[in-house]
Amino acid sequence: MKKPLLTRHLQLRNMLFKHWKTKGLKKGEKIESQNDIKSFCDFSLITIIKTLNDLQAEGIIQRKVGKGSYLQNAPWFTSHLRIGFFYNREVVGGGIFNNNFYTKLVVAFEKQVISDGHEFILGSFTHKQKPVLLWDDLDAVVLTGITKKTEVEDLGKTSCLLSVIDTHSDKLSISNYRINLKPAFTEMFSLLKNKKINILYLDSLIKSPEQTVRLNDFKNIFKIKGHGHKIKFLNVDQEFNINQTDNLIKAILSFKPDMVCGYVHPDWYDLIEKVSSKKVNIYSLLIDFGKQGFIVNSDKWMNEILPDIYARLDNRSIKHQPSSYKAEFIK
Prior knowledge:
single chain, alpha/beta, Arc Repressor Mutant, subunit A, Rossmann fold, 3 domains, 6-stranded mixed sheet, 5-stranded parallel sheet, 10 helices, 15 strands
């Protein structure tokens, strides 16, 4: 049974709005002809003509004889933007506010969005389920926690501007605002100079593209600058079972590291120092900390991320990847 004509008009209207929003169409720019619209949608020409007439009567489009139709008003665009931050709750264990790094990241992101005069929305998704309809109501959304298990097909179905934080994926062509630890790793090894030490690198049990890149960066720099040092790699669960530290304790007792770095949960600092028979330097990826580690300054990072997002919203044709944020090594 065919749906009522009014419903078909509303469906086409919504589809056109989503299509024009996705294209980044601005006021005064030309829209497709009715025949072009017919070629990419499943609506009759009669429905298309009626819908375009309604949009003209509402002042949404303007038809110029012999020249075509132009967007006169964009009802999905407001003076303030709606910017979302969504995390994968299957990766960020225990919720985002139980993770110190992500807590500080969300707070910094929200603070900058609000101070820029826009609206901030926080949400989550899973490997299989994405709130695509909610994203359609937003202007831009930043995602974190994309892994090889994440189904990414739905990411191409939303009209909002999607980007990711610190996610490496050949399947995603969207903007990636990532942290580059190579300079910090290089600086750390340079400061070791001629000291010969034992290095314990803690790696996450959750395998993700960015985790793999960081591990490979560390291994490659170690090959170049780590001559004479001994290294041990250990997989740890920093997200869901942080109290299961038996393997960590055994590694410290047997390997006797002088340095522990990589994926170090804050709750493990005291444990590492207590178990160790000597002073141990601990270097982890931290945000807005003055102590030693691979440090990210949230204000500087947000000053790189958000202006770039605003620029891409204004010009959807920007395709180049943004430059990565370089973490600083503090000894």
